Amino acid sequence: MAMVIMSCGEQQKQGTKFAPQERTSSLTDTEREAAIAEKRAELMEGLNMDTLLYSHGVKFSIVQPKVQGEDITEDIADRISMKLLQIACQNGISGLGTTPNFVFGTEIAQTGRAATGTAPQKMTVQYELTFKVMNTITGDVYATTTQEVTGVGNSFVEANQNAVKEIKNTPELQKMLQTASDRIVKWYDANLQTIKNQVEKAAGEGNYAFALALLNSIPEQSASYKYVAEKQDALLKGMLHKQAADMLGEMEALLASSGDEFNPAVGAYFGLIPTDCPEHKTAQTLYAEYEKKCHARRAALEAKAERDEQAARELEKLQMLYAHEEELSAIEASKIKAKYEAQAASAAANSKPTGFFGSLGYAISGVADRFFKVADTVGSAFSREMNLSD
User: Fold this and answer.
1) Range among 32-41, 115-124, 157-166 with highest mean pLDDT value
2) pTM for the whole structure
3) CATH number of 49-190
């Protein structure tokens, strides 16, 4: 049940439409559930949804390493970014990119690159990584540590991919992130007025998503956290009104791909569109039509379940999803709100002049976008398993 709730909670798009036909499963239910769990773990790369979406603690943005020569390609830089996101999660820090004020990244120095003289020949690469957490407002580096990694493979591409896998959440890195977290909390304690100015400026410009991202970046450990309660509802309302048209568009796209299949993201978008927006009436009509389709499918399964074992299994799984519809939709709603905050914060960071990150030389990466795509991929894969036999 826990696996069902967590996995389905991460679904957003389902491209497979319901088409009843006889299928023979090559896996037992236990084997299929184990395969789903393994795929989920592989795709999520150790990421913790609770920490990413619901944490009220320290937050920062992951910054992508600079692309360098043949080895630190865009793909390798992207893999390293996701590794840093995973490490942040393991230390209780959300690194989805919802604040540009603090960043976590690494500088990379290649210390070795060679082909072995043995047969079969292998390629090896060695790197020294210098991790840093930086205050982008002041330019101060709050904490730093280094780590050496080695990668071996049949090609340099494979060797570099394997080197990324060797980046570990070491005790030294844990200590460094704790030091940085403590200093971030102290900064918020001493700079509430700076945050207020940023929030008010963004809200005054109608950039409610960025204002909300800045507000939600205040950690609950800080004495400034009480400001969150004062402003959060108004800023969230502003953001949802501003994004109403976009949310309706996303909802329409989901409806087109979902057909008559249960998809909690549809209800999440409908629930987020404010009732006093012109888009709400359209959304209400579309959602009513969608519910009729879903109820018709459910009724068809119920009629067929008495004489068809496969239909009975599908109905049981569908009923399980409906039983948790409210909480699944709430998870999807949290993903949607976090996505808008991350996009706004990333846009604000990327609008800074070249060299804004000083010697780090980084640019805010698309880590948040990749996370949401991964979460949607996991949800879609799980949904296919839930709606159709193997």
Assistant:
1) 157-166
2) 0.78
3) 3.40.50
